[in-house]
Amino acid sequence: MSVIRVERLEDGTRRVHLATADTSARACPVCGVFASRVKGAATTRPRDLPYGERHLELLWHKRRWWCREVSCPRRSFTEQIPQIPAGARLTERLRCAAGRRVRDAGSTVVQAARDLGLSWPVVMDAFRVAAGTVIEAPLPGCGCWASTRPGAAAPAGNRTPTPGSGS
User: Fold this and answer.
1) What is the pLDDT of residue 149?
2) DSSP E strands: which ranges in the chain?
3) How far is Cα 141 from Cα 143, in angstroms, rounded to an integer?
4) Largest CA distance in the chain
5) What sections of 23-149 are H helices per DSSP?
6) Residue 151 confidence (pLDDT)
7) What distance lies between CA 166 and its chain's CA centroid?
8) How far is CA 111 from CA 70, 116, 132, in A?
């Protein structure tokens, strides 16, 4: 993304006008062929993290393209980037921050939603994704117990003396 201009509104909010700087956004999402003909323009308002104590209002001025691949079922499409997929109302940065706030900062889902101006379901979904990265991570090797089966001998050096054993 590139910034076209920034306006300060009366309430202190910054309105940031953006344009697409990534040329790969011209690739058709279905067939991958790069478009060369503009069909029109569209403006979206994806929400992002606040800047300081004020919210940012993003206006993304993007182009609608004609897909030039004859066999492609998609006739036209708007620009999209990985941080803001087509149809997204939130940036991935905001979504990930909401999930991490619950996972790492000890915030409740309700409090994170209030702080970031999001709904409870959005924050809960973001938390599920953030928690999934931790849950699916492999556990570190321990090596402190050879077995946890009842009656199994503990490794040397980890034995607890039993009464009357003289140890």
Assistant:
1) 59
2) 2-8, 14-19, 37-44, 56-66, 76-78
3) 6
4) 89
5) 92-105, 109-116, 120-135
6) 60
7) 59
8) 50, 9, 21
- Amino acid (1-letter code) at residue 15: R
pLDDT along the chain (167 residues), means of 10: 93 92 93 94 93 86 94 93 90 95 94 94 95 81 60 57 57
Beta bridge partners, 90, equal 47
Count how many residues are written for the chain.
Answer: 167
Dist CA 111 CA 102 (whole Å): 9
Residue type present at position 155: P
Provide the pLDDT for residue 68. 92
Q: Which amino acid is at 44?
A: T
Q: Which two tokens stand for residue 76?
A: 């036209």
The three-point CA angle 79-87-89 to 5° equals: 110
* Burial grade of 102 (CB within 10 A; 0-12, 13-18, 19 or more): buried
Residue with tokens 């919210």: 55
Confidence (pLDDT) at 25:
93
pLDDT for 150: 61
Strand partners, 65: 38, 77
